[in-house]
Amino acid sequence: MLRHLSDRVPGRQSDLRLAAGHCRALEDAVARLRERQLPLLTAWGEALAGLLPAGGRLLAAGNGGSAAQAQHLTAELVGRYAAERRGFSALALHAETSSVTAIGNDYGYDEVFARQVEAHGRPGDVLVALSTSGRSPNLLRAAETARDCGLGVWAMTGRRPNPLAAVADEVLDIDAELTATVQELHLLALHVVCECFDAALARRQEPGLREPA
Fold it and tell me: 181 pLDDT exceeds 50?
């Protein structure tokens, strides 16, 4: 029986302290983001509202949990965030499984994103690279390739300094100790960008933008 299970778990008080500490770390990180990084996120939303309707493309990449965040972002752009609108071009590079495995097999795993940036990216497009450590070699290679191909590079990382932040044009760096907290703040940041993107589209009177039924 699972009724009243929380009353019978051994070590419940220590686990509750751990859970409370996790929540406090998240709250503190949110406060720091709100204080100093909202202008960057609103600027990213505005920039995408100029780029994507004009035929530009967003490429996104990450590893592990950051891969899930990257794919979440592209889904919000190809699908929708809140307001009903047409879809926009956004690709999560790790989700191209045949390309990833072929490139990894033929060129090595460090090239799995860079090769796709070279194939899909065009001057003026944007690469969003997500890494909690900022040290993933495949993302560093992707960022370098994007710069060489004329793309903008937006990095979402943990604390600076880190190599990915050093090569990016714009950086959202999360001041947090735990990897989980960084990932949770990245998701919040992506939602803020999407919300600002929709708002900027509305200001530009993008055709077909309306509230969902």
Answer: yes
